[in-house]
## 1
Amino acid sequence: MIIRQHLARTGSRALVRSSSHPLRRFLSAETDARHVSADDSIKQLHTLDTQLDTPSLPPASTNDSHTHPSATPAQLSAQVAEQYHQFKKQQQLIGKLGSDITPHYQPHTLLNNPPSPADVTLELLLASEAHQGHATSIWNPANARYIHGIRQGTHIISLEVTAAHLRRAAKVVQEVSRRAGMVLFVGTRDGQDRAVVRAAELAKGYHLFERWIPGSITNGQQILGRCKTKVVNEKDVEIDGFDEQLWGRPVLRPDLVVCLNPLENYVLLHECALNNIPTIGVIDTNADPTWVTYPIPANDDSLRCIQVIAGVLGRAGELGQKARLAAAERGEVVYSPAKGLVLPGDEDKAAADTSAREQLSPDEQQKLDEGIVDPDDLATMLDEAAHHEGKAKSDRIKVVS
Amino acid sequence: MAWTEYMEHVLEQLNGITAGTELENKTPQSLTIEFARDPLKAPGFNFASMAFNNHFFFQGINTDPHTQSAPSSLLTAKINDQFSSLDTLRAEFWTTAEAMFGPGFVWLVQVNQDLRILPTYIAGSPLSAAHYRRQSQDLNTHNADSYKDLNKVGQFGAAAKTAPRASKPLGGVDITPLLCVNTWEHVWLHDYGVKGKGEYLNRWWDKINWTKVEEKATLSQPSQNYGFERFTR
């Protein structure tokens, strides 16, 4: 196995001599044969002397400005930064000299630079051991459609199925992120914490790697009632002045939950199901695929596989966030903002609205709150939307509230 | 041969040493640093260092037969500042390389803002992190500590009363290698013969790729020159 290969492409050319260039003589190297040996030994002594008297690299002097002890911290850190920059540049130029290293698995790249949904290949999944299922005796027959076959007493998950389901899940995460939904990445097994945190970081979502506290959704007001909430605008810039309005507000819930070990998180997945929160989960051959909305049949016991899946979903979320922020820069808001919040400067307008609302009958008030529209009004609104030209918002009905 | 066969040989040996270990996917540069301090790992160091040095030598050669590379004005100014002229640098370089009896490399390195010539004997490495095996002195001809004996400072003072301990090797000064010539015999023996080292060195000098040298160097603009040249204008 040749791990390193030398670069053969420049080999033969490196030794080409320029035949037209004449030899230049600077020192009388071509001396008489009788004096050759004496001259050579004199030259060696000469070099020896120079080396003894003035060693090529004297020790770093203490007067050197780079190591002067009285440099201020700012100067020192600037020097260190400069040296680091130079080191990095040097490494780029000469770091790889000597051999070609064949591409190989580098564990840190899955966390530092995870693959995107476009990079998902069957080879990647195979190398990440996503196909390894459990012993055939402990399988869940509901997973039969995902299983390719049996080898050495264990089920083998079909990688084409895995890839397809992973791509679908990535699409879901991407779209939820694009619509400013809250994505929660959950991975409570040992070693899944880094993957989960990295995925949440990329997708601008939330992470959980310790035990899920039962009731965080169904009994959210009690468990998460004291958590801080903030109001951000469409460009994700926090806006101050909402403390009073946020005080009595119901607790937030995720819009999508990605669970990397559903076998240990039944309570979380059940709560999500009770509250109509879609879930994505990594389903092994012994897991129940009905616990999640979008199963990804894969090996949940392999950290490398989990890192690949979490990385892919994180990257998908990153794409969605980029699309959302790009639309925000253009002035398009692709989601419906939180109800009941008023900008701190607009309280008078809000007061006028509430007084107008109080003049309606209770039925009409309820309809207004729930956003129910009369069929005739709806028809006219649809017509307007369909015939509206130019604006990209025409695909979304704007409900008057 | 110096390139194709030698690199194959060296890398084969290096692969043999590192295959199966956690070091099998490391670059030769990192392996020279890894193995530099342990004498038991000397074979690994030798092959890694030779792979790195040899590749450094060959990538520094201008392979375009139609162009003659020359140092830029900034680099020339730096050379003139340090060596008083490009010809002097060439002479120094030539003399150092010619006088080295036995295999090795001669480097042009940058230390802070100074350019210096550094010979490394046999498989020595100029990298500062591998300074244990820099091998910049010919151990056949003198004791590596002998330069200390030449320095008589403090011999009669209080500090000199204690018996001189074997001091630790110097720490690695930050060296940036810019240029090197391979003076191993197999490089020039086939084309120039046993006596052709001088000719080989001369021809090599004309084929230096100075662009690559400058890429590696970090040259600041020359400061106001307060040297003796001021009085000669």
## 2
Amino acid sequence: MSLPNDDNMSAHSQLSSHFFEDLLDSIIVDVASECHRVARLGLDRNFEEEEEELRLSAQARARVADSSNNGETNSKYVVDIFGQTHPAVANEIFECMNCGRSIVAGRFAPHLEKCMGKGRKARLKVTRSATAAQNRYTRGSPGSSYSSYSNSTGMNRLSNGASSGVAGEEYSNGSFEEL
Amino acid sequence: MRNSVNRPPTPDAVEDQEKEPTLQEIINIKMIESGEKEKLMELLRERLVECGWKDEMKALCRAYIKKKGTNNVTVDDLVHVITPKGRASIPDSIKTELLLRIRAFLASAAL
């Protein structure tokens, strides 16, 4: 009695694996065709910027690494009330929560601009459906779900770089209230 | 005396080609008909997005496209680029989950 069962089991597992591979292959083809479409239609706004950003990040990191002693003699010789000096480029390196890259804090604000969208260029980031893309094209309606950066079209800099991902309304004087 | 009367019977070429559907095919049909295949596909897609697999594959694609140049890449190329890594980097938990569901279906379909 056990033998037919065993045969059944292994035939079943074989069939299951085969079927799973089929599903996986279909999904792989989907992903490939999606990437192909995005590349050919030029929808990926980050495409050319990646290398530029990597270069700038590496630059920032280099500056942090070797100028930490020369912070005093560089352009910004600022001593705060505790007698501390601050390096020209902020030290810490951490991960962007949007795209997952490691960014030096001093480069975080410009990075977020590109990553999340300050204006036309980054705003046209690729999305799955055309309707979602159209939502992004309409500017600055505070009630929309993109309100966290939709009002920053007039500003070129995020005020403290810490406004990412927080759902709140940004007023034009730069202050920021959480609902 | 007409030749047509003694004509040899036409060979059973047509019948020979229609083999019995394999077990594989039967299962496939059952899966599609019951809607289970669609559900499994959606489940797998969701899991793969959650665990970042899809993003990894997209990154691979972008890197390849950058190397080759946007206009020289075909979907076929990309499929061949992704498939080995894609198959290998599936997390075990996802694979197990899907396999269990498939097997449950096989059992319930009394095959």
